[in-house]
Amino acid sequence: MGETEGKRYDPADTTLKFVRKKDDITGDDDDVLRVEMSCGHAVDPNSLTGWCRSLLDQGKIKFHCPADVGGKKCGKEWTYVEIRSHAVLTDEEQTLFERKIAPIAAKQYCDYKECPGCKSFVERKDLENLWVWCVICKSMKHKSHEFCWQCLKPWKGSGKTSVRCENPGCADPRLKILEDCCVKDLPGSEIKNCPSIRACPTCGVMIEHKIMCKYVMCKQCQVEFCFACLDNAKACQASKGGAWYKTCSKPLAPRQTQIPVWSRGLQV
After folding, report:
1. Which residues contact 79 (CB under 8 A, 6 or more apart)?
2. Per-residue model confidence (pLDDT) at position 148
3. Which tens digit of pLDDT belongs to each residue from 51-91?
4. How buried is 160 (Cβ within 10 angstroms: 0-12 exposed, 13-18 middle, 19+ buried)?
5. Distance of alpha carbon 33 from alpha carbon 125, whole angstroms
6. How crowded is residue 233: how many other Cβ atoms within 10 Å of its Cβ?
7. What's the rounded Cα separation, in Å, for the pair 133 and 249?
8. How far apart are CA 178 and CA 181, in angstroms?
9. pLDDT in tens, 97-108
10. Which helix (DSSP H) or strand (DSSP E) does residue 117 occupy?
C-alpha cells in the first residue's frame, strides 16, 4: 500500500528522517515521501502499520524489520515507540496495538495466566504451588474458584504441589519435549550426546540448540548459559579456566525433569 492510500506524513515533522527510496516492506518504488527506520530501511506509515499488525495477529510483540539484505531479512528490532511515530498510529490504532500487546507480554514475561472462571489475568503468589485461588472470582461471583495452574481445570488434590494436580492428564507438555528430544554433539567442543532442547535455567523458556558453541543467550531473560552443564556462562568459564569452550568442569547435565520458574530477583 503506497503513501497515497491512507495515512500521510507531515513534511514539517522534524522528528522523522524523510527519504525518497523504495518501500523496503512492500517493495513499492513509486516517488513518494517515506521515512528511514533506525535500521536504515525505508517505510511508509501504511506499510509499517500493516506489517506490525500482521506480527501482532501471529502473537508476536517484537517487531523486526523484514527488509531483504542479500537474501536474508534485516531482522533489526524496532521499539514500539519508534513504530508509533513512524507508522503515524492513530489513537484508535494505538489502543488496538496496546490491547493486543499487553496480554501477550503478560503471558511471555510474567507468570500470569487467564483464570478459566472469570477470564481475568491471575498471578501466582507462590511460584512453587500449582493450586491457585482467584480473588476476582470471589469478588465478582461471590464464590471461590480454585484451579490448577498447569492444566487450568478445577482443582483436585490436597496440599502444596509443583508437579501435577490429581486431574487425569495433568502434565507439563514441555517435560515431554525435554524427555523425547534428540541428542547432539555441540559444535566447537568435545561435548557429545547433549540434549538438543533445554529449558533456560533462569526463566524456563524452551530453547533448541541449532548452531554456534555451547553458550546460548536466552532471548527472554537475557541470561547466557552453558547448554551442556546448565551453569550460567560466567560461572562455567570461571570454573574451567583455559579451553572452557571445549569442555566444562562439571559433567554434562542430564535431561531436565523440572521447568525452572523465573524469579527475577535471582537473575544473574
Report:
1. 63
2. 93
3. 999 999 998 888 999 999 999 999 999 999 999 999 999 99
4. exposed
5. 52
6. 17
7. 44
8. 6
9. 998 888 777 666
10. none
Give me the mean pLDDT over the 168-195 stretch.
92
Which H/E stretch holds residue 235? helix 233-240
Close Cβ partners of 99 (under 8 Å, ≥ 6 residues apart): none
* Residue 113, strand partner residues: 122
- For residue 92, what is its C-alpha cell? 484508535
The x, y and z cell numbers of residue 15, run together, are: 522528528
166 CB-near residues (< 8 Å, 6+ apart): 156, 157
d(CA 46, CA 87): 7
Look up residue 208 and give its amino acid: E
User: Which grid coordinates are listed for 50?
Assistant: 500493516
Instruction: Report in angstroms the alpha-carbon separations of 161 from 49, 132, 149, 150, 156.
Output: 45, 11, 11, 11, 11
Q: What is the pTM of this model?
A: 0.55
Measured distance CA(252)–CA(147) in Å, rounded: 37
Confidence of residue 14 (pLDDT cuts 50, 70, 90): very high
Name the DSSP class of 256: -
Contacts of 51 (CB under 8 A, 6+ apart): 25, 43, 63, 66
Helix (H) or strand (E) holding 237: helix 233-240
- Sign, CA dihedral 28-13-78-5, equals negative
Bridge partner residues of 35 (DSSP): 18, 43
From start to end of 50-106, where are the E strands? 63-64, 68-69, 72-73, 77-78
Q: Is 88 exposed, middle or buried (0-12, 13-18, 19+ CB in 10 A)?
A: buried
